[in-house]
Each structure stands twice: as C-alpha cells, then as structure tokens.
Amino acid sequence: xxxxxxxxxxxxxxxxxxxGPPEAIPSxxxxxxxxxxxxxxxxxxxxxxxxxxxxxxxxxxxxxxYRFEIGKICNLYRMLKKNEGDEFIPYDIYPANPGLYPxxxxxxxxTLWWLxxxxxxxxxxxxxxxxxxxxxxxxxxxxxxxKAFRAEIDCVLWDREWLRENFVGILFEAETDS
Length: 178
Description:
6 helices, 7 strands, single chain, 5-stranded antiparallel β-sheet
C-alpha cells in the first residue's frame, strides 16, 4: 500500500483527530457525489486532522469542515476560471467530471488536486501554483508526499533544496477539528 511509504517518511500522531469511523465513508461520498480514492481515507485513519509542520494540510474527509473547505476552494477556482478563461486554468473544476478535486494546500497557497478522470484510485495528481502553473503526476497521493518529505522529487511546487530545508524531518501535528 502506498500509505506505508508515507508512514515510513512521516510518523502519524499518536492520537489522530477525526480519523473515522470507516462506516461514514459511504455517506461522505454520497454527500459530495463522488467516490474518493481509498488512500485519502487511509491517510485520514492514520493522520486525522492536522498539518505537516506549518507547511502542508491534507484535507481530512472525516472532518466536520471537509465539505466546507472543498466547496470553498472549488468555488474560488471556478470563479477564477470563469473570469480568466481556459488558458489560465486548463481543467474544469469539481463537480465537473472530469475535473480538479482538491486534496491539499500548502502555506504558499499552492493547491494539490486530483483529476477526476477514470477510476478514483488511479486519478492523477495535478499540482497548481498560485500563479497557475500546472504539473500532472501519475502517482498516488501517498507516494508523492513520501517522495516530497524525503526530498526525492522536483516538481512545479517545490525543488529538492526547498524540500530539504522545509520538509525533511517534518512532523505531523494533530489539531482540533473546529
């Protein structure tokens, strides 16, 4: 499982916040009208709500704020796409399918998305910088994060030097779900 790569790179908190229950998955997916990659729920089971240091937040589907946060980001980028056009954002945004579906944001305002095209567990990652530079990666969320936390990847968001300075040795900090 890809989650094992991430668990090997960054230890989860001893007491994750809002890390289930797994029985809630069908109702979460029904509420958003989309089947999500299983690894997002695996991530949430181990890490729950929180941040990697002060740098990166992966949205927790078990969080009380999940739908609000996803909706806020999607609304913002749908409006931006409407105003700036397809040249600025060359993808549709959820609930369009295929479309971009956010799964994380970093402290610099960069957004990490899935492209909802095909089977959920095989969705590619799309990285988007604040100035709308994009990069598509065909790898799982957990593999991508593990590579980033070990400074084993260069991408449009971060180069290896930045990763070594900001991600290597980072801790996941559980936080309240308010």
